[in-house]
Amino acid sequence: EVKLVESGGGLVQAGGSLRLSCTIAGFSLDDYAIGWFRQAPGKDREGVSCISSLDGGTYYADSVKGRFAISSDTAKKTIYLQMNSLKPEDTAVYYCARGGGSSRAWINADAMKWGYDNWGQGTQVTVSS
User: Fold this and answer.
1) What's the rounded Cα separation, in Å, for the pair 23 and 4?
2) Is the pLDDT of residue 55 over 90?
3) How far is CA 113 from the centre of its chain?
């Protein structure tokens, strides 16, 4: 069974840091890209970042570039999202999902809009001002 489980959310002050984890089961990280998404109340879901563990390719949305870093630990079957310099506008439920493959074709904004599924349950991130 394909499964993705997020953890690591919480409440943090503006300027602080959090590290989210997405632990997978039922498939190999070498075969599929993993993406992080977020959705704030009343807003559309946003693709934040994604990674191909096969070749290390990454993508970041402009809103998080320079502040967030995505990484992969294939031995632990886990994808991390290190979030630094957090802002109140980063407040959202964060989800991870699986792309349709592991090539660079899945590591871009368009792929994140249409090509990811098998969503986790989400983890809440709240940034206070």
Assistant:
1) 6
2) no
3) 13
